[in-house]
Queue: 4 jobs
Job 1
Amino acid sequence: MHEEIWVVRNLLQFHLDAILFKSIDAHQVVEA
């Protein structure tokens, strides 16, 4: 059970990082 929670947390963190990275990248493109 704990392993499943760890996997879910890793997936959520990965998606959050991807969304933040995309938003930052988009802002840089707009400013350029």
Job 2
Amino acid sequence: MNTADTMDVERRYKRRGAKADSEAGMEFT
């Protein structure tokens, strides 16, 4: 659980792509 949170935060910090962030959030939810 903590790992997923960290990955999400790192991905958001990198801001690689809003689409990827949205997909990742949907998958995590």
Job 3
Amino acid sequence: MATTTRQVPMEILALGMSRTGTESIKVALERLGYGPVYHSCALNPKKDRPLWEALIARKFPADKPTATSSPLTEDSTITREDFDQILGHVRAVTEMPCAAFWAELMTAYPDAKILLVERDIDQWYRSFVRTTLCLIFAWRKDVFAAAARVGLLPSSLAGMYSALFQGYFRAPTKFEMLTNLRAVYVEHNAAILKRAESEGRDILRMDISEGWAPLCRFLKKDVPEGVPFPVENTGDQTLALCNQMRAMTMTKLIGRIGRIGLILGSVCVSSWYGWFLWRS
């Protein structure tokens, strides 16, 4: 849902990197009364994608070498008005693409609490490579994007996320991303912590394995009685969902190409038969 005005206050910026438990945090925050929470799983492809693509192009322009840019650099031209068009209806945000705009979001919403979920760097690296890296550089992504451009498939988010991750990790190639992942992950967390502390902002650093206690203490909420802390979007779940979606998309694409082939074949046969009758 896109809006041009803020309908509810922005209360929490959960700015941890992808694969640190962002969907679990979304569910937890909504359970504590901070819904709706904006997460990539709630992103509206038709309404939100063009707005995010414009912001990504401004922060990571194609003509700017990604090797020399930094995710720590704030784009001062990106304002609260830009974000409110996409996020005006939510009380909290988590996951990419929001995490890549952490500096701009902290400026746009100075009263929001900051939540930084961290994860052991080696565990994070393995999870990111297994579930996300393979999607960013997948050959199917380019096929689906080309099919979307000619109207064979609906617009895909894959191209948007590829541009985002390649820009944020300063990595136009898979090799460069593998090289940069750990360093950018450390930079991301350290920069958010440093800025929050320098501005006197309320910030909580936590690991998802700590459960409800630190989060509820930070937000001054009671721990939900008898409710286990959510565990969402595990590596296996992510891979299974991605494989299912790719298979469905490929099946749809093949079916549409087949129908087009059938129509073209029928037209050719009809044209030939008409020509044959005319010659006779």
Job 4
Amino acid sequence: MGSHSATDLLPRLHRTAAAFYHRFRGDLDVALPTARRISGYHGKVTGMLPEDIGGGRAGQPCQANEQDLVIWVWATTIQLLTANVGALLCDSESTTHCCR
């Protein structure tokens, strides 16, 4: 995660969710520029793994555009949204019927 992300969690989650939505649910006029923009941002983000993560080992170089990392971010985003936003929606009287 970029250094700004550690102190900017909710806006970061919002940007990530919006970007995934545009990439996977938007038409091509929206999806392609979004994918290119994100790839450009992530192409500049490199570092070292702080610990063993998945198939990566602590100290191994990594880049934000690596496919396994992008898939992990997608899966984690969905888990966070499902656990937190879904729970909030289920607490609302107006949307309780959607969660059954």
